Amino acid sequence: MILKRVSLSMNKAVTFSSDVYQVDLTNPPKLNVFTQRQLSKIPQFMLLPENARIGVEVAALVFPFRVNEYVVNELIDWDNWSSCSIFRLTFPQKEMLEPADFDALLAAYKAEDKAAIKEIVERVREGLNPHPAGQKELNVPTYKGEPVEGIQHKYEQTVLFFPAQGQTCHSYCTFCFRWAQFVGDKELKFASKEVEQLVGYLSEHKEVTDILFTGGDPMVMKTKALASYLEAMLLPELDHIKTIRIGTKALTFWPYRFISDGDADELIELLEKVVQAGKHVAIMAHYNHWKELTTDVSKAAIARIRATGAEIRSQGPLLKGINDNADDWAKMWQMQVSQGIIPYYMFVERDTGAHHYFEVKLEKAWHVYREAQKQVSGVCRTARGPSMSASPGKVEVSGITEVNGEKVFTLRFIQGRDPDWVQRPFFAKYNPDATWLDHLEPAFGEERFFFED
Ligand SMILES: *Cc1c(COP(=O)(O)O)cnc(C)c1O
Ligand code: SF4
Predict the structure, then answer these.
(1) How many CB atoms are located within 10 Å of the residue 226 CB?
(2) Which of 15, 126, 134, 254 is the most interior residue, by most CB within 10 Å?
């Protein structure tokens, strides 16, 4: 099959089937990033009220903060900054810290007391559950008797791989559950050095059909580095690997990665090559809001990826103050589908970082999901959820109902540590305050859930 090429030229037009997106490439932008110390270099930020600015400056000492000019200039609505979902997605807020911690940190910050800042920041981070769901200790496999770093193998068919150079992002999300690895704590970083180990492990595990490259964001890697991993997946001994997934938020944070970065064309060619070799390539795009889909450069990047034969699937968590309403989800799914993206998962925000600030009650999560699904046609209803990636597996809140006069949550495993748990429905006592699986108790007077035996 000959795949239609997206033409991308210096006369500024990106064409894909009937759509034409105008992307000005006469002066392709550079990835200029701002971190906590460069907040004052963001002109729009400097126009915010002083207390808001201080709040961000202090919160950004604890939480990962990094934005780039594209996010600042194209995605954030600075006229309505305090309610802007993209602002809240990228700029940490005062309220993400407990008031006492904030006050202590503010005092140390004002006094420019570096030692005190360091001590408070470390203490606060320690209390933020940096490794939810036992991510660090569990699921690390062994190869030739040694633990293989950078690999997690929890569900039979799918191996997660954390390429060493892909453990950062083009911008950071304030709620990131992988925040621990961005804040310089080397010990917490899971990353991998060796593609050989990965190939060796996979070739010994014929039950694995999917490899998921994740991070951070593997799309921060140079194409050459990414190619060394992807091309290894084409080795004959990995014939059983049918699907190559790449988790990324670059379509939101830096769509130029696919358009005008120095090695963007090579990246597109690489995806095409892997597709033509017979693998299913799935870009697992992290999305939180329909605004992320609105710029021409993002549309062009999506079109360009799809023209390679790779599919784009979307997933992201439900977050208070960012996307906790059904209309935004319905609109996002519709926009995704019209651009050729397949909605995949709606997640419940994990119990890490500033969870108290972003958490949505399970009851509300289910309502948001249901009300959003009601508004869209079947082609948008491919998003499953709301799903909790918990220690026993991915657990979906299927509904709230009454059985024999007892109000209950109905739940089911989308993925299970034990494959036999998959698709098994189970029940928990209705708990209006629950925000996570471990807040739930079995219904009908049972002592434990079936998976706890
Ligand atoms: C979600 C997840 C996967 C992929 O699961 P799918 O349902 O196939 O998308 C694999 N490993 C881990 C640890 C996960 O959390
Ligand atoms: S894109 Fe993903 S890994 Fe990167 S900061 Fe956001 S949530 Fe974290």
Answers:
(1) 23
(2) 254
